[in-house]
Amino acid sequence: MDSEEDMHDANDIESLDDDFYSGETEDAPMGFYSDYDDDADDYFDDADYSERTESSRMEQNYTVLKESDIRQRQEDDISRVSAVLSISRVASSILLRHYNWSVSKVNDAWFSNEDRVRKAVGLLDKPVVQFPNASELICGICFETHPRSWIESAACGHPYCITCWAGYIGTSINDGPGCLTLRCPDPACGAAIGQDMINLLVSSEDKEKYSRYLLRSYIEDNKKTKWCPAPGCEYAVNFDAGSGNCDVSCLCSYSFCWNCTEEAHRPVDCVTVAKWILKNSAESENMNWILANSKPCPKCKRPIEKNQGCMHMTCTPPCKFEFCWLCVGAWSDHGERTGGFYACNRYEAAKQEGVYDEAEKRREMAKNSLERYTHYYERWASNQSSRQKALADLQQMQNVHIEKLSDTQCQPESQLKFITEAWLQIVECRRVLKWTYAYGYYLPEHEHAKKQFFEYLQGEAESGLERLHQCAEKELQQFLTADGPSKEFNDFRTKLAGLTSVTRNYFENLVRALENGLSDVDSHGAACSKTTSSKNVGGSSKGRGGRGKGATLTSGSCRITDDNYWSCEHCTYANAKSDTTCQMCQQQRR
Amino acid sequence: MQASRARLFKEYKEVQREKAVDPDIQLSCDDSNIFKWTALIKGPSETPFEGGVFQLAFSVPEQYPLQPPQVRFLTKIFHPNVHFKTGEICLDILKNAWSPAWTLQSVCRAIIALMAHPEPDSPLNCDSGNLLRSGDVRGYQSMARMYTKLAAMPKKG
Ligand SMILES: [Zn+2]
Ligand SMILES: [Zn+2]
Ligand SMILES: [Zn+2]
Ligand SMILES: [Zn+2]
Ligand SMILES: [Zn+2]
Ligand SMILES: [Zn+2]
Ligand SMILES: [Zn+2]
Predict the structure, then answer these.
(1) Which of A80, A201, A388, A480 reaches 20 to 30 Å from A209, CA-CA?
(2) Is the separation of the CB atoms in A471 and A496 below 8 Å?
(3) ipTM of the complex
(4) pLDDT tens across A162-216, in order?
(5) Ligand sitting nearest the alpha carbon of A256
(6) How far is CA A487 from the centre of its chain?
(7) Out of B7, B66, B93, whose CB is closest to A143?
(8) Quick check: is B108 catalytic?
(9) In Å, what is the CA distance from A14 to each residue of A11, A32, A34, A585?
(10) Which residues on chain B are in Cβ contact (under 8 Å) with A171?
């Protein structure tokens, strides 16, 4: 017990009574609240509070950019290069795009070898061809003779009529962002076509498209900026490297990892996340699932999942074909001839001939590896949906409830910040908890100490979060529906603020440990192994996080080899040797 | 449609005038369809195609010259950048590097240049490309010469 307290102390949590953990929140002794008085006081000290959030905002090493910000920055960069190099803004824009919008790279390249740069990007300083006195010229595309006023040229002087220019540039714009590097039509020329030519020669619709490509290029070709990956969001993020934290939060409220642009996944690293996401979508995993839990309908060939114990399968509409799970024969063929509706001699006989063995073994093996994955996946997914729900609740809280609550409880809205703060904490914790399940899946099975330490921290964090979520969701209800001020509201405030603070500590603890690769395991290992044994980590499925179909990690999954299972005489189901009754039809083993 | 027809007609007149100028290329337009052309090109000298005459088929799109013509060899040819069965040609100017300033005549010139300078790194004919990439120039040349003899030269006797 001593060492467990050490751990709490190390993280500035008041030592907590172990009873509290095992008890339900509602039954928690009043003493509990006083434990948090200090914390709660801090919390309501407004100056202190704002300073805390301010300091975390100070560390922010990124800026969210709206479209107007992006245009402004792009204009500024173009002006800067234009001034320093004494070139036109159009030329400056062409140069910047070529050097991925890096002002310093443009300057370096230009001043080390201007001629080479000019050649590479197609900025000519004088025309290649000139027709000083011609009143008519032949267009190099349509080969027609046109009056001089119909002819336009890039810096090179190659003459094309305005109709052909419009076709040439329009085709390129409609082909995609390649139009930003458009060159003179003359194959031997290479003179750059800038935005001035575009604006002079094409339809306003094409001009608009071009200008969007130019804006997109400023974000997409620049190593320091990225679009927010949230669907429908049009903001971009500018990131200054340096700090270790890669999570950025867009103005649209979506948080993502700067490195891999997946949803924010601190404390789990990008590689693990990529593996996990791939795994979730991998066809192989999907195939395993189907292999273990379904068979193709013999009539329509769609995979049919076996979700009940019964062998009598009915395909989904419109097919509705009825068949036997064991032999995949038509159910109508079953009955007296096969030894009763709930037995399938055809299967039994065929199995004895070894026909079904291979397929059946593979099905079993797939099932075992699948069970482990399903265990983590279900928890990952239910924390995900729990987070979505909490986000919606938070919004509802901010938009509707806070105002109402302020009226009924006669509390200024500024004094109700603790509720929003609690929900923000819940949303963030669900996110972290979700990713710890991906982490857990890849934690090597043989690293027992680390695994136990991890499961201990995760278990603590999870149960703290469950209490907080419960309190914010259920206990708040009574005040939302109340007609007037309640005496208990201040107690509620103290409790919720306290739980928020405790839960924050637990999660900071968890995040820190995972980011250190659980390297503290040695100093804490002994303490944890003791606690973990009493804490049923798998039992966390009770909580909100595991509110799925229930744990699939059943202990009795039998690996079928020839002599460690028995076939039920009644229904032919292959039962584990240890079972004394059939798992399928409950008949005694005979 | 009108622009492409007008431009093709310009090329047609130019071809009539230029016939004697480039003896290696003989372009002709289909009698009933100005969007279908054929060309006879001479295999470049000092290549395994020397002495052969190769027929090309052009199919010109309505967006011409903003879009490139489709060209393929009708005569069988053993060349890394030409599909052995279909005659399809892998040449950048017929794809993304197309410019409306090119003409059917200059496309023919580019194809002759490609015959002399194959690009074994983007092969449509893998056997041919592999011979060159493995440095077996003699193997490549004798195969190419054999097919030139078989398909691109008048039969004797
Ligand atoms: Zn023209
Ligand atoms: Zn030019
Ligand atoms: Zn966003
Ligand atoms: Zn990442
Ligand atoms: Zn069916
Ligand atoms: Zn059956
Ligand atoms: Zn049974």
Answers:
(1) A80
(2) yes
(3) 0.87
(4) 999 999 999 999 999 999 999 999 999 999 999 999 999 999 999 999 999 999 9
(5) 4
(6) 42
(7) B7
(8) no
(9) 9, 10, 11, 53
(10) 63, 66-67
